Amino acid sequence: MPDKHLTDLTIRRPDDWHLHLRDGAMLQAVLPETTRHFGRAIIMPNLVPPVVTASDASGYRDRILAAMPPGASFTPLMTLYLTEDTDPDDVERAHRDGIATAVKLYPAGATTNSASGVRDFDKVRPVLDRMAAIGMPLCVHGEVTDPAVDIFDREAVFIDKVLKPIRKKNPDLRIIMEHVTTEDAVDYVRDTPKNLAATITTHHLIINRNHILAGGIRPHYYCLPVAKREKHRIALVQAAVSGDTRFFLGTDSAPHTDARKLQECGCAGVFSAPNTISCLAEVFDVAGKLGKLEAFTSLNGPAFYGLPPNTNTIRLVKGDPVSYPSHIQTKDGPVTVFDPGFALHWRVES
Ligand code: DOR
Ligand code: ZN
Asked: What is the CATH number of the domain that holds 20?
């Protein structure tokens, strides 16, 4: 039951542990939507070409800092895109010099701009060994890409075929299984006592696969990993509101122009940066767990990454429904904002 009495809530400033900011005109347009409410974000490296080396990450960070809206106080935490040619020394240098916070593993072909990802996991073993030795975390897109595996099963199969073997060979490597979408992943993370955590997106707490496919196809809900059955969404909500420190917010806010979403073969990605905090407050309120919101958005993530939580706060106030624009305009065209399909009552006062 929602807590009828709580209408005003102050929490530490949230961080987003999985974010796509893109580059150029798109970066310029979407960055303020994140800096408004978030203190830090883990920035995904799947640009074209990808952010592979320390030098790439440093250049990309400079472009993000140059695009920052006036007065914003926001720290982009950069990631390196893991390829089979990644040099362990370059990764170590990026970590030591504070250029990159984590490395991102995309199985080749798993999602948008992942063609340079990993095919043979043994080839990246020297990099993973080095990361374990220096304490640098690995962010993982947890889906197999075998066309023979049903798209709704790709996360569960990834756990058995890829993640468990990696963890067995390298138990000291700190891994974040990103944007988990299944009960299987929640159970696996919960049953693993050490060095494994998971991010959960806002949209996967709200939609199931019916939202995408029943009564018409809704491309703006299509993302990867694709939303699963309702029982999986419920498992994600339970994990998020549980306070368990191994689960934290990574929005996977992933802007694509409407032209690129609404075509014969539309892109995967949900753009949720503008209204994510309002959506989450609603989800936690409906679950009667507003008291756990701060852990999910602002405490568990920094703890796993070994960083202090933000010292400043945001205030959430409940009242009449709040509206957000349905689109943001970019020089490349409009980008549709995630529609949770229900009214939002929590306004964010940063
Ligand atoms: O839906 C998604 N969009 N999933 C991803 O993993 C990548 C992202 C993107 O970059 O658009
Ligand atoms: Zn992503």
From this structure: 3.20.20.140
